[in-house]
Design goal:
single chain, about 15% strand, alpha/beta, about 200 residues, globular
Length: about 200
């Protein structure tokens, strides 16, 4: 993935486009999008446990649009503080909350109001009091320094216009010895300038 968007790219317009796309995913997950969504995709192609997903509210799983399974990389432990960057409708967030338990904390950060609202409702539906939703941006996380045991992210960092700044924020909020469980899109080579300047490609 490119580390930074072209200087001339309208970052504010990019941010709005991302919010628009994922607001549509939150409210109409069966709409016409060019990326996969939903629990069947997650279980069949990304190796999520279908039975575990079936225990979550359908609103949390229907809008899932991740690209991998970060929770399979390393186990979460009871009592840990985990933050999900770009938590969307909350599928990974709620799974993480179950793993850290009532003594832990699962914080979801997203910049899309519709996703935050959906995730909050799903957390309330299953009584996950250890879940907290915060509106925020990858480049300026609403978290204290050295406050998080584990950062998870699933198909979101590719949307950040400045990856160096995003990873710097992750480093800032992780406790010493903290872990990053990351699933994302990677490229084997540098994208050409035409692709890097296409807001539709960045947003989707």
């Amino acid at each position: 993935m490119p580390l930074q968007c072209p200087i001339e790219l309208d970052v504010d317009r990019l941010r709005q486009e991302i919010q628009d796309v994922y607001s549509q995913v939150a409210t109409a997950p069966d709409g016409d999008f060019h990326f996969h969504r939903g629990p069947v995709f997650a279980s069949q192609l990304l190796d999520y446990d279908a039975a575990e997903l079936a225990q979550l509210p359908s609103a949390a799983t229907a809008s899932f649009a991740g690209v991998g399974n970060p929770l399979s990389i390393d186990p979460l432990h009871p009592g840990e503080v985990v933050v999900d960057l770009g938590s969307g409708a909350g599928m990974d967030l709620l799974l993480a909350a179950k793993r850290v338990g009532a003594t832990g904390q699962a914080i979801g950060i997203d910049m899309t109001d519709a996703m935050l609202s959906s995730a909050s409702a799903s957390a309330q539906e299953i009584g996950a009091d250890q879940v907290e939703l915060r509106k925020g941006d990858l480049l300026e996380l609403p978290l204290e320094d050295d406050s998080v045991d584990v950062v998870i992210s699933n198909g979101v960092l590719n949307l950040a216009p400045d990856k160096v700044a995003a990873f710097s924020e992750i480093t800032r909020v992780l406790k010493p010895g903290g872990r990053l469980l990351l699933a994302d899109i990677v490229m084997s080579g540098e994208l050409n300038e035409t692709c890097r300047s296409d807001i539709d490609l960045w947003a989707g």
